[in-house]
Every structure is written in C-alpha cells, then in structure tokens.
C-alpha cells in the first residue's frame, strides 16, 4: 500500500490493515481487534522538511524513498497539524526576508501539541553567531514559538527546548514535557486513544507494574494510577530526564525509574550481574503482576520476551505487527490474547500501531 493522501479513501486504506492484523494474530485465536481510527487530516504533530533551492529561493521539500536528487516541493502539508500549516508560510517568509536566517539553512523541524504549543528547530551548515541569535529572537516573538538553532557541535535555544502536551485519560488531564529531538508519538489524537485503551486494559490492580521502554512517561503516568507501584526503565538520558519531570509535574509518586535497557533489566532480574544504577532498589520487594512493553520496531529480543513470560499479564503496544506476532508465538504456550486493538497512527500508509493484552492460561 503506497502512501497517498486522500481522505475519501481513508476506509478503503484502513481495511487492509485490519485484515493484516487479523491474519497475523489468527494462529493465536485472538479476538476481533477494536479499531481506533485517526482524524482524516491535520493529525500529525511532527514534521521535518529538507530545504531545496529553486529560482533563487529555499522551499520546503521531501524526497521519495531512495531518491535524493529529485525534490518534491511542499507549500502546505495537510496531514500535519493546523498549527504547523499556519507556521510554514510565516517561517518561509521570514527566511526569505533575512539572509541571516536563510544562510546555509538546510533543514526545518516542527513539533506541535494538542495543547497548542509549538517548537521549531532550524538546522544549519554554518556556525551560529550573535547576529543569528538576534534575528532568531525576533522570529520567536513574531511566531509565538520556541526555537532551537542547530549547527555542527552547537545548539542555541530561544525559549524552551521542549513542547508541552496535555492528554486526557479517563477524565484526568496529564501534562507532558516533550524534549526537542526525543521521540514522541506523532499522532496525538490516536495516542490519546491508545492511552485510554491501555488504562482500561490493565484494570484496577493491587499489585505492581514493570514497564520497559518507558520513553518520556507517555504510558507511565496514567498506568501508575492503576497499580500499587511501578518500576520503569528507559535507556535514553533525554527521555529519562523528561519522564522524571513529568512524574513530578503530575504528582505521580509511586514510580521508580532506572536508566537501563530492557536487556540489562532482564539480566538484573535473572541475577546475572548487579547494576550500580539499581543501587537502593530491592527488586525482590516488588509484587509484579503486569509487564508493559512498547518496544522499537524490532520487537522484544528473545531473552526479554522470555522474561515477560513470568508475568500474569503482558500489556504490549507494538509499532510492527510482524514482530508482535513473532513475540506472541514465543509466549503462546503460556499466555493467550484477551484483548486486541489497532491504532491507526499512520493513515494513508501501510504502517500501524497495535495493542494486545496477554494473560496467563
């Protein structure tokens, strides 16, 4: 299925994804997936453009996969948020009017939120000087955004180096700091649906939760309100710092966060070797009932997958249904699929996000 923006074709493009997930999970007697649709347009909160010179001007541009020399010039971007579409022509006019802003500018990144915040990153093939900073401050005030300038080995921040998001889960609003350059869910409306699905799927528990790959705490915050306590892991220092801020900002005080990879935590729980970063944490004091995983596209490695088998419940969010199916195949003899969902994070493409709740047989 090729990427094509056509809101009238939305359902016909979604149907093959639903069928694909059904087929992949059919060997495991999965229930019918609950399907969470995306807004038809203005759903993407992030956008990244290269700049392409034509007729003496720089234009927003994208390239087809594998094609580096034939640019597709972009004037507007209907899949991106309304805020991004409003900012694009104003930013373009600013760099066209200013040699200081346009000189050696080669890439622009936008990050917006459902809460209305916006941050722009400008990337340069030259050092950034005081003249650039003065022009950038004027631009920041004019556009009402935060702005980050990047050049080799240097980063200048005008305003904040993060955007603020607010997401509603089961009647409560959670606030998130989303750092520049760190991963965030691109489709905010569908992300909010994922959070609510996960919140409902885990249920009200009187035991503990282990979370692997917690990122900035996207799922951690609401899920922590459903359990006694949480041990969460994340390897990215930027994401760990954001998650710690987000926990504090939202008054969530039953989470311990450690900067370990899923593989390292597996070694710790299997008592293969000790880790200084776990100093002061008694792993044996936890009464884990559920493990929550949201791994990268490669899925869980075999050892981590084997670790999750110990838990009564495995709540799994996946950005790759093939590796999800492979992981479930490893666990199928001890766990069955109780819930299944498809989240259409990436409409008009073949990509999908899915979720399953596995419970011990």
Automatic annotation (TrEMBL):
The active site is at 319 (nucleophile), 319, 353 (proton acceptor). Keywords: Methyltransferase, S-adenosyl-L-methionine, Transferase, tRNA processing. It comes from the Bacteria. S-adenosyl-L-methionine binds at residues 185, 213, 218, 234, 294. SUPFAM superfamilies: S-adenosyl-L-methionine-dependent methyltransferases. The keyword Glycoprotein does not apply. Its EC number is 2.1.1.35. GO terms for molecular function: tRNA (uracil(54)-C5)-methyltransferase activity, S-adenosyl methionine-dependent. It catalyses: uridine(54) in tRNA + S-adenosyl-L-methionine = 5-methyluridine(54) in tRNA + S-adenosyl-L-homocysteine + H(+); uridine(341) in tmRNA + S-adenosyl-L-methionine = 5-methyluridine(341) in tmRNA + S-adenosyl-L-homocysteine + H(+). Dual-specificity methyltransferase that catalyzes the formation of 5-methyluridine at position 54 (m5U54) in all tRNAs, and that of position 341 (m5U341) in tmRNA (transfer-mRNA). Belongs to the class I-like SAM-binding methyltransferase superfamily. RNA M5U methyltransferase family. TrmA subfamily. NCBIfam families: trmA_only. This is tRNA/tmRNA (uracil-C(5))-methyltransferase. It comes from Pseudomonas shirazensis.
